[in-house]
């Protein structure tokens, strides 16, 4: 007969031995495939008619008349159910008719040890299981077939495809690597090896569409997809279902362990460690999880060992590189840390090269040569040789004797580790105490991770309990006379924005005319850099009490640069607040003349062109300890490529959106003030000529700025929130400052790693933007909250009992609240004056990605602090607002800069929020609360007048509240220069201690609450302002 299925697994057979009930299979059926009962074949009396039926069935099948074929084969099977060829043909026919379940059951009835049909039947069954999404069952069959025929290469290819399709990427790689060595791997298979922690088509030019609704619990594909989107909680939820379905799968267990570590779910992590299936330690994700556990215990040496063990098993995981970089920085090995960081980016480039390789692809040869070099650099010599063969087959002219001779010499173990471990030796780092040298785990040695002490461990901890109060926050910009909308281009853009066009301009709150009322300054863009300046001015609004008046022209503060950050402060120490505007290009300094007008300090400088260097955030404070105000500038990038338009494909979708690591980063600077009033620009390190920002270098893409006292010692430091790179915390050093000599050209040193603010809780740099600085748990002093990218949790750097910080968003409840948000501006705002600092956050994506299911506009968040844990406050508009009024809190926004002030002088802090695609919002706090407050303004005498980094402590009975004053104020803006304390129900007079930046302290007894007080350095009395 003609073979109806021409399998690659076995040749077409024309004879069959009878099937008997006593025939035993050496290859078991996959679970759920039941064997059909059948009868023993009859004698040869009816063989002639049986052969006729088979021939008719074959003829009908070849004509496509599958119903007729089925009738013939079914009749033949009734005559002799022992014929394997009949069962095979009937199964094929059933498959063609769409009766897939019956087809699989029929072919499962053919014994595996059938000399002619057993092997082919099992191969066909495995293929059908694959096509009916029963891939795990197919994997079982393929593995058994390979065990029976290990020399049959096509089977291994099918097993690789099956494992990759269900997300068991490490298992697929174990099967594929021998094929690579044997020169049997295809080009597409080689691509799957470029990254084993993402779906198999991650490095393909056109990834296959994946219907998430069709995912089955025997597949980790959905886990990897969600993980790639940083949806860790959703990934863990799905992976738990995978574990429940396959509790003995070690790769699934390793992934579950790491996802638990990512989510800091240490209780579940510990339970999982006690029931790990055999072989879990063979997978990279186990060691990555083990390293994260060691980090949570502050054991960085053993964490490095774990991460290196992870690299030994799979060196394609980006997260392992990030963890190693962070841990090595903490251990004081910045050079090796930078090497791993560079290796990480080189690996990303390798993936892009893999996508560019292909027949008729324009960059085929260039990308092929690049990937060969990278494979050699990574120590993946077998893959390098395979890619070289691909390249040489299409481009013989690219053959290179040097590379060929290098590929002929295999790496010995030391060379291999040198390439993979960037020169480190894993044996120089001890294994965790709970893992012995044989990699056996002592499960009874686990305990919860070491975190900072309980909220009430500090003697200054507040015993007050937060009582939920309904938040009433009303958007009143138009009502108050403010009509401002930012434009990111002369005609405004909402899609395909260049990198500067999504950041929006900042807002400053300051009393420029010193009438006691807070005025507002808004930055504008409205230009086409670098060729055309803005067509609209920045706007200054003067507070007249009940409304604001536009006075930009009267005050001479018009600026037509492409403005981003803004700040205010007393630069010349004359008692009048000056204004500094940070631009894309030349910054502007407006000196307050004290008569309602400003003088442009750089009026003599006509070189105000827009350049590729731009300042995002800026602040005025004494950061050198000489009592003179310096000017700190945070810069993003300096690269003419930022002006290039976003490339859009024929389908109307951007081919690549701009990101900070695509451009040359800019170095931040301090304009150091001299006694003469002149300022000298001091760069905080070397400016890069080109290339991306690397770990350990000063030049980083900075967005947010906070200047305050971070280390508890007299004087100010400044924290810079960097985009996708480690944050920086700069401290001025000199022979007079702790005896530390000035190092290099910059008198500032970065102490972020030592203070615990460089990276997130996972040891990873995130896309940090806005910064909030306040005591959020009423323990140990001020904490740092830093907003992040979509599905990157807010960094909640909680202050320690002595010095330093630890990122702990889960304790604050901010992990869940910040998921699926792109956060920009963030500020503390005790909206109900209960003494617990709440948060207000401006959210919104940088680009319209709604076609991917990702929101563009997002809600502004008001998060209520309930005893150190945040919940959504669900704010509402005032009941007095007209029914036709559009409720700000029920609509979505593209929030950017957020600042706070008490513009209506009612003792309740208000907020102002800039927006990418809508008018600026002025949020008036109309919350009805019985609680009390205290507001303090400071004036320095021996220290600079704004007295930034002064520590104020308010004592009310057993309650002590503490705050270090600050400026820079997070993302691009300037808060009102006032320190606000919510006092809860405490109505008695309070005592105030002010410790100035020079270490001198003043005390003030029995100040009445519900007032604003002016405290001047050295003055024995505080003055009640209102």
TrEMBL record:
The keyword Coiled coil does not apply. SUPFAM superfamilies: Integrin alpha N-terminal domain, TPR-like. Pfam families: FG-GAP_3, TPR_19, UnbV_ASPIC. It comes from the Bacteria. This is FG-GAP repeat protein. Residues 20-41 are annotated as: Disordered. Keywords: Signal. Coiled coil: none annotated.
């Amino acid at each position: 007969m003609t073979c109806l299925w021409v399998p690659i697994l076995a040749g077409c057979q024309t004879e069959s031995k009878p099937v008997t009930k006593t025939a035993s299979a050496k290859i078991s059926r996959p679970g759920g495939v039941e064997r059909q009962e059948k009868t023993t074949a009859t004698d040869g009396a009816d063989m002639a008619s049986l052969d006729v039926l088979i021939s008719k069935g074959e003829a009908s099948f070849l004509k496509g008349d599958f119903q007729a074929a089925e009738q013939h084969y079914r009749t033949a099977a009734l005559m002799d159910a022992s014929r394997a060829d009949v069962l095979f043909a009937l199964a094929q026919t059933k498959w063609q008719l769409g009766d897939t379940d019956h087809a699989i059951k029929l072919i499962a009835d053919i014994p595996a040890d059938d000399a002619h049909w057993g092997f082919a039947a099992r191969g066909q069954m495995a293929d059908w299981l694959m096509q009916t999404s029963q891939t795990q069952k197919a994997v079982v069959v393929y593995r058994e077939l390979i065990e029976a025929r290990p020399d049959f290469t096509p089977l291994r290819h099918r097993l690789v495809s099956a494992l990759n399709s269900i997300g068991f990427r490490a298992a697929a790689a174990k099967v594929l690597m021998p094929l690579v060595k044997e020169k049997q791997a295809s080009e597409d298979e080689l691509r799957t090896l470029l990254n084993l922690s993402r779906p198999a088509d991650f490095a393909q030019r056109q990834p296959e569409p994946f219907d998430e609704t069709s995912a089955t619990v025997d597949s980790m594909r959905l886990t990897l997809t969600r993980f790639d989107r940083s949806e860790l909680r959703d990934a863990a939820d799905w992976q738990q279902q995978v574990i429940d379905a396959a509790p003995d799968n070690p790769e699934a267990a390793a992934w579950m362990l790491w996802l638990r570590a990512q989510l800091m779910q240490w209780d579940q992590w510990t339970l999982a460690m006690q029931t790990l299936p055999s072989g879990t330690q063979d997978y990279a994700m186990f060691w990555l999880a083990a390293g994260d556990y060691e980090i949570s215990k502050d054991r960085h040496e053993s964490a490095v060992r774990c991460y290196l063990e992870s690299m030994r098993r799979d060196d394609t995981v980006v997260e392992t590189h990030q963890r190693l970089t962070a841990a090595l920085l903490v251990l004081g090995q910045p050079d090796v840390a930078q090497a791993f960081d560079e290796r990480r980016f080189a690996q990303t480039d390798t993936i892009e090269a893999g996508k560019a390789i292909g027949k008729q692809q324009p960059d085929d040869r260039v990308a092929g040569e690049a990937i060969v070099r990278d494979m050699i650099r990574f120590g993946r010599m077998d893959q390098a040789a395979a890619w070289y063969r691909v390249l040489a087959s299409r481009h013989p002219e690219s053959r290179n004797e040097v590379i060929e001779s290098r590929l002929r010499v295999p790496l010995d173990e030391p060379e291999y580790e040198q390439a993979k471990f960037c020169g480190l030796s894993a044996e120089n780092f001890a294994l965790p105490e709970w893992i012995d040298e044989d990699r056996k785990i002592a499960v009874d040695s686990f305990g919860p991770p070491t975190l900072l002490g309980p909220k009430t461990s500090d003697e200054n901890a507040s015993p007050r309990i937060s009582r939920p109060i309904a938040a009433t926050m009303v958007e009143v910009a138009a009502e108050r006379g403010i009509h401002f909308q930012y434009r990111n281009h002369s005609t405004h853009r909402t899609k395909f924005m260049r990198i500067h066009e999504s950041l929006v301009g900042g807002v400053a709150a300051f009393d420029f005319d010193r009438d006691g009322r807070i005025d507002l300054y808004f930055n504008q863009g409205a230009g086409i850099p670098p060729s055309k300046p803005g067509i609209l001015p920045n706007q200054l609004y003067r507070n007249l009490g009940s409304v604001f008046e536009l006075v930009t022209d009267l005050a001479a503060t018009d600026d037509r640069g492409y403005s981003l950050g803004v700040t205010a402060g007393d630069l010349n120490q004359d008692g009048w607040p000056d204004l500094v505007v940070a631009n894309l290009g030349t910054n502007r300094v407006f000196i307050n003349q004290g008569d309602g007008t400003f003088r442009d300090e750089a009026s003599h400088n006509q070189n105000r062109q827009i350049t590729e260097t731009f300042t995002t955030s800026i602040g005025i404070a004494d950061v050198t300890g000489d009592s003179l105000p310096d000017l700190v500038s945070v810069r993003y990038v300096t690269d003419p490529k930022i002006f290039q338009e976003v490339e859009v494909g024929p389908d109307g979708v951007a081919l690549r959106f701009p990101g900070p690591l695509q451009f040359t980063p800019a170095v931040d600077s301090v304009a150091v003030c001299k006694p003469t009033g002149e300022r000298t620009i001091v760069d905080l390190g070397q400016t890069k000529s080109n290339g991306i920002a690397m770990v350990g270098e000063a030049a980083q893409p900075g967005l947010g700025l906070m200047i305050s006292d971070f280390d508890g010692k007299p004087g100010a430091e400044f924290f810079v929130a960097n985009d996708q790179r480690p944050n920086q915390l700069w401290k001025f050093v000199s022979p007079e400052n702790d005896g530390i000599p000035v190092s290099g050209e910059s008198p500032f040193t970065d102490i972020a790693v030592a203070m615990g603010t460089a990276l997130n809780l996972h040891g990873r740099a995130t896309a940090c933007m806005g910064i909030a600085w306040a005591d959020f748990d009423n323990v140990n002093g001020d904490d740092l909250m830093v907003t992040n990218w979509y599905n990157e949790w807010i960094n909640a750097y909680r202050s320690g009992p002595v010095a330093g910080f630890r990122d702990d968003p889960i304790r604050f409840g901010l992990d869940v609240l910040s998921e699926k948000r792109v956060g920009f501006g963030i500020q503390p705002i005790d909206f109900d004056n209960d003494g617990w600092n709440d948060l207000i956050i401006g959210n919104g994506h940088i680009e319209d990605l709604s076609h991917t299911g990702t929101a563009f506009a997002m809600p502004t968040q008001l998060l209520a602090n309930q005893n150190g844990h945040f919940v959504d406050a669900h704010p509402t508009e005032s009941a007095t607002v007209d029914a036709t009024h559009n409720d700000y809190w029920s609509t979505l926004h593209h929030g950017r800069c957020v600042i706070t002030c008490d513009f209506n002088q009612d003792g309740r802090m208000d907020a102002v929020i800039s927006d990418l695609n809508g008018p600026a919002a002025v949020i008036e706090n109309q919350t009805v609360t019985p609680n009390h407050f205290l507001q303090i303004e400071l004036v320095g005498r021996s220290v600079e007048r704004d007295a930034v980094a002064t520590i104020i402590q308010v004592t009310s009975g057993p309650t002590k509240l503490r705050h270090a004053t600050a400026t820079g104020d997070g993302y691009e803006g300037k808060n009102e220069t006032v320190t606000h304390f919510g006092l809860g129900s405490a109505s008695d007079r309070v005592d105030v201690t002010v410790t100035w930046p020079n270490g001198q302290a003043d005390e003030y007894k029995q100040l009445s609450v519900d007032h604003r007080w002016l405290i001047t350095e050295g003055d024995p009395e505080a003055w009640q302002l209102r």
